[in-house]
Design brief:
alpha/beta; Rossmann fold; seven-stranded parallel β-sheet
């Protein structure tokens, strides 16, 4: 039985990953502060990654899946605390690419400041660089927007709420801004393929090969409840994040490298239906934002 260490383990990506690998008979260790319920079947290492002492020194991990590293210090402190390990997989972000770069972004595209993501993106760049200095054969995955069951971010769930309440949907501009998604199950499946096959590429953009317009994305979210949205166009001068869950920023990742060893991804409509089914019984686990209040007070007049 392979031992895998997952940082986090209690929220969205890391929680889903812990569940996924437990179900596939890995011996799953999670590292967190134990402030939230743990996934059934994991072995908890309670602590802060910045002050672990010898808690990890005596355990050999076949794979370390680092989902909660956001800065270079996050990387160095965990690496210093580890004993022996085989593979290291870090979940980075598409935010490492500057918004004004040539698209689609390839893994060799320049990284740099992205005005929409700011420090989050530049910190991820520094974390990547720190990891590669210490573990040149580590895997770095750069996903676009992740979605699916256990998503605590108010994105698709916001649209589900609008559909359930039969609200009109306030759409940015003409609704043609493109988004790129990746189902959380695909992210975990891809990591499992990396664990099993050790592909030659070590920095990998991951995601669905197709982008989708925000209009089509909203329409597919409503379709999960057998409904069709009635759209209201919002002037682009209105700050988009006050009424819509994405920045006014269109981007596309080139995922050809991923497709060489993980060619099939979950169709968006199928993935949204799964997300909607989960949300109906876990609504209290999503961090809701006051988009409906802003719309009512500022856009419905």
């Amino acid at each position: 039985m392979k031992k895998i260490l997952i940082t986090g383990g209690t929220t969205f990506v890391s929680k889903y990953a812990a569940t996924y690998f437990v179900q596939r008979d890995y011996e799953v260790y999670v590292l967190n502060r134990n402030t939230k319920p743990q996934v059934n079947g994991v072995r908890l290492i309670e602590g802060d990654r910045h002050c672990l002492g010898n808690a990890l020194k005596e355990i050999h991990f076949d794979t370390v899946v680092d989902i909660t590293s956001y800065t270079a210090k996050d990387i160095t402190d965990l690496q210093d605390a580890l004993g022996s390990f085989g593979q290291y997989i870090m979940i980075s972000s598409s935010a490492v690419y500057p918004e004004n770069g040539a698209q689609p972004f390839g893994e060799d595209s320049p990284t740099g400041v992205n005005q929409f993501w700011g420090k989050y993106g530049t910190d991820k760049i520094e974390a990547e660089n720190s990891l590669l200095k210490r573990a040149p054969d580590a895997y770095i995955l750069r996903p676009p927007y992740l979605y699916g069951p256990m998503n605590n971010v108010y994105r698709e769930a916001f649209v589900f709420d609008c559909a359930k309440a039969d609200r009109k949907f306030y759409l940015p501009g003409d609704g043609e801004m493109k988004l790129q998604f990746f189902h959380i199950k695909d992210l975990c499946g891809l990591m499992e393929v990396i664990i099993e096959t050790k592909p030659a590429a070590h920095i990998i953009n991951v995601g669905n090969p197709q982008t989708v317009s925000v209009r089509d994305w909203v329409t597919q979210c409503y379709a999960c409840f057998d409904k069709r949205p009635s759209f209201v166009k919002v002037d682009r001068e209105v700050e988009q994040r006050k009424y819509f869950p994405f920045y006014d920023y269109e981007y596309c990742l080139d995922v050809q490298r991923q497709q060489e060893f993980y060619p099939h991804t979950i169709p968006l409509q199928e993935g949204l239906k799964e997300a909607a089914a989960w949300y109906l019984s876990h609504e209290d686990e999503v961090n809701k934002k006051p988009y409906p209040t802003y719309i009512k007070e500022n856009l419905e007049a």
